[in-house]
Amino acid sequence: MAEAVSARALFAPLGPTYDRYAALLSFGQDPRWRQFLVSRVDARPGDTVLDVATGTGAVARELIRQKGCTVVGLDQSPEMLAEARRRLGDEVRLVEGTAEPLPFDDASFDALTFTYLLRYVADPAAMLRELARVVRPGGSIASLEFGVPHGVWRPLWELHVRAVLPVVGRAISPGWHRVGGFLGGSIREFAREWPEARLLAAWRDAGIEDVRARRLSLGGGIVTWARRA
Predict the structure, then answer these.
(1) Residues 6+ apart with CB under 8 A from 17
(2) How far apart are CA 198 and CA 203, in angstroms?
(3) Cβ(213)–Cβ(200) under 8 Å?
(4) pTM of the predicted model, to two decimals?
């Protein structure tokens, strides 16, 4: 819970500028990753999709644009939800709450998406079980997370997260400076504790099948998609 509270405090000031500077600091890749994430979701008009850690609603908007489905967005940050509400109006039902546990009944949704979530929970394996719980059998589950590039791209990534992010963040605002100084270590630590093979095994152990993953932008982003067993 302490990690969740710190994440909420970290991102609370960023709502109005989040999408713009997330795109800038990722060299335009973050919006592309979200579009690819949604393209992996099996949903259609008439389906209801839960978007966990919806933030400002970028994935929720993309779900509506690509799939024409009904979307429920969940986030613990009232500040982020206020920005999502300003942008989306009544297109999406927005719910303030935590993902541990999710405030929904078993098998409530036809599909589920989540973005940049697992680094902020104490037990990612338990979180995956809880996410799977609210999806109907056969329903689609897809996620986006940051990755650490391999090989010759690793030094360039390290330069970006150690030098570029903090410096550019400082130029934007104090809030973005804190995020810029935090992200590299957070991503690196999660990748070390939960390498891809272990994380995909946790998906399968959570009752999720046909698990697939794709590294995007030289490995800087990872989209994982599967089905509830």
Answers:
(1) 172, 173, 176
(2) 9
(3) yes
(4) 0.90
CB neighbour class for 113 (10 Å; exposed up to 12, middle 13-18, buried from 19):
buried
Counted domains in the chain: 1
Domain presence at residue 43 = yes
Q: Enumerate residues 6+ apart whose C-beta is below 8 A from 200.
A: 211, 213, 224
Instruction: Name the β-bridge partners of 215.
Output: 222
34-52 pLDDT, tens per residue? 999 999 999 999 999 999 9
Write out pLDDT tens, residues 63-116: 999 999 999 999 999 999 999 999 999 999 999 999 999 999 999 999 999 999
Give me the residue label for tokens 């908007």.
61
Which spans in the chain are helix H? 2-11, 18-25, 29-39, 58-67, 78-88, 124-133, 153-159, 165-172, 174-193, 196-205
With DSSP H G I counted as helix, E B as strand and the rest as coil, what are the percentages for the chain, rounded to 5? 55, 20, 25
Cβ atoms 119, 87 nearer than 8 A: no
Instruction: Please indicate, yes or no, if residue 165 is contained in any of the structural domains.
Output: no
In CATH, what number is assigned to the domain containing residue 129? 3.40.50.150
Query: Beta-carbon neighbour count of residue 127 at 10 Å?
Result: 22
d(CA 89, CA 214): 33
